Amino acid sequence: MSTFALRFGSAVQLSRRATFYSSHARMIKRLASTAQPSIDPVAERNKALLAMELPTNDNNENLLRIRHSAAHVMAMAVQRLFPRVKVTIGPWIDSGFYYDFYVPGEQLTPDDLKKIKKEMEKIIKSNLPITREEVSRDEALQRIRATNENFKEEILDSIKTEPITIYHIGDKWWDLCAGPHVESTGKVPAGGLQLQSIAGAYWRGDETKPMLQRIYATAWESKDQLESFLLKQEEAKRRDHRTIGKALDLFSIQEDAGGGLVFWHAKGSVIRRLIEDYWKEKHIENGYKLLFTPHIASLNLWKTSGHFDFYRNDMFKPMDVEDEDYQLKPMNCPFHCLLFKDTPKSYRDLPIRFAELGTVYRYERSGTLHGLFRVRGFTQDDAHIFCLPDQLETEIVKVLQLVETVLSKFGFTSYEVMLSTRPAESVGSDDIWEKATAALVSALDRKGWAYTVDEGGGAFYGPKIDIKIKDAIGRKWQCSTVQCDFNLPERFQLEYAASDNTKQRPIMVHRAIFGSIERFFGVLIESTAGEFPLWLAPVQLRLLPVVDDAVDYCHDVAELANRLGLRTEVDRSGARIAKQIRDAEQSKVPLTAIVGVNEKNEKTLSLRLRKVGDVGSFPMEQLVQFVAERAKTAETLDKETLQGRFPVATESN
């Protein structure tokens, strides 16, 4: 055995290798801690780019025009380089645009994208005018046939309005298009443009029709916007919940069991339990009755609810049970309707609030499955409120307050809210639609939330409020929804005795906060990059023994900590302390404690905070109790808080 000077106390005999902490190392650390941090201009610029609020197609018409025109410029460039190519459609999308091409006998390559981009830059530099022309259907058909563009002929057939509009780039190229566009190709910022990838796509999404080649591109108003977008894409890739979920041992999709079915590992299950426990606690506080309902039901139930007629393609096939068809449930609402109907109701009983963490099953094609975001079995945080018309506004306000309470607990405090109103085809009277929509508007006004209106975007059964949350890198995720329903109470003949003893239909409100536990967990992983706050971390404290003699003490500390509710484990790897620290950092454990002989003898812990490093040596029992209390209340824990709580703490090293 060798003798090493330990960081805590005098030299001792070690039974395995330990890191050597010399007086020189301590001096270097002190000097480093007092040195002025240097400013990294690249890091500062990247920080600013990540914080940049990028425009969208919805809030910036100029951006939409740029993208639409850039798609035409790309199509023109492709046909210049590949004269046999035929064009199809080129719509804008959230991040830019794509264009589908029929390329007979040839496969486009990444090198071709470089050539296409150069040709686009030539067209942009030429500053060709982009002009609109209106023609008759016959004239449009003649021009299409003259150019032998058979896909355009099919597009023309699908256009039901007249006149037909055509957009020209100079006198060199044209396409059927409704617009809008910029005035000339020079208005398309070449520095804000990037061709990204090539993919296959069937014409009209039909597997029996020709395979096309789709070029995806992104387009922005400036080079800075493009750089911001690309940096955010890179950051999003780093935060991919599938990669982090595997690295942190949170969940998996076991292909031997089937695609789209989530296996929650022990650590992921800890977080799920905490999410669900908080959800249940807040719902009970707000007067909800928590339910459990079956996973299958007679197919007749889904015919009564209308799901079989309207959502059949999203449901698994029925199963035969003693010559009767049963169906895996795609939604929970019909079960809650049955429970409401189970006993007579008076107006005095309303509102009734049912809530359930109910697992549902949806048929998803294998090509659409995506980690936790698109699965075949998932748990909805479902709730249904049955209320009187004059109770609706207050109930919606309470729902919005509950949404904010729950989402902010997990760090989501910025929302985008949309109110969707009556569509062309709907059920329910004009009066009930007007009153329900007015109630939603008044509730949003009382809550003080800004919102946009999607005229005619409501469900056929009632108006709704949709809430998107913004994550740590500015992405927006559809999450919460509040929907009035005039359909199911009618289908299930739900009623209550009104004050005048007449039978009336209650208003039914569907609402979810997370949407689904699985999807919300995926968003949470990506927003935190797996660095969960202390209260949510599956392992909150990891003990790192420097020597074998400290292992038993570590296990005693872990036993006490776990008994107090602080999720603690001991590193049993036997690795050098530097590797133990590195492993804990990679596992994103919030707290680690380096434990040597001195800690054992003095009943202390030398604590490290994730991303901070050493914060001091503290009395073990008091520290564990304090941290356990902070974790239970979801309070943050930093160096200043610890050293303020334990003023006699000594600096490690």
Characterization of the model:
The chain has 653 residues and is α+β, with helices and mostly antiparallel strands. The chain has an eight-stranded mixed sheet, sandwiched between helices. Strands 3, 4, 5, 9 and 10 form a five-stranded antiparallel sheet that branches. Helix 5 runs antiparallel to helix 6. It starts with a strand and ends in an 8-residue tail after the last helix.
How are the SSEs ordered, and which strands pair?
Blueprint: E1 3-4, E2 12-13, H1 23-34, H2 41-51, H3 61-81, E3 86-87, E4 92-93, E5 96-102, H4 110-126, E6 130-135, H5 137-146, H6 150-158, E7 164-169, E8 173-176, E9 193-202, E10 211-219, H7 223-238, H8 241-247, E11 251-253, E12 262-264, H9 266-285, E13 289-290, E14 296-298, H10 299-305, H11 307-310, E15 319-321, E16 324-328, H12 333-341, E17 352-361, E18 377-387, H13 392-409, E19 415-420, H14 430-447, E20 452-454, E21 464-470, E22 476-485, H15 488-491, E23 496-497, E24 503-504, E25 507-512, H16 517-528, E26 541-545, H17 551-563, E27 568-570, H18 577-586, E28 591-595, H19 597-602, E29 604-609, E30 613-619, H20 620-632, H21 639-645
Parallel strand pairs: 13-17, 19-20, 26-27, 26-28
Antiparallel strand pairs: 1-2, 3-5, 4-5, 5-10, 6-7, 7-8, 9-10, 11-12, 14-16, 15-16, 17-18, 18-25, 19-21, 21-22, 22-25, 23-24, 28-29, 29-30
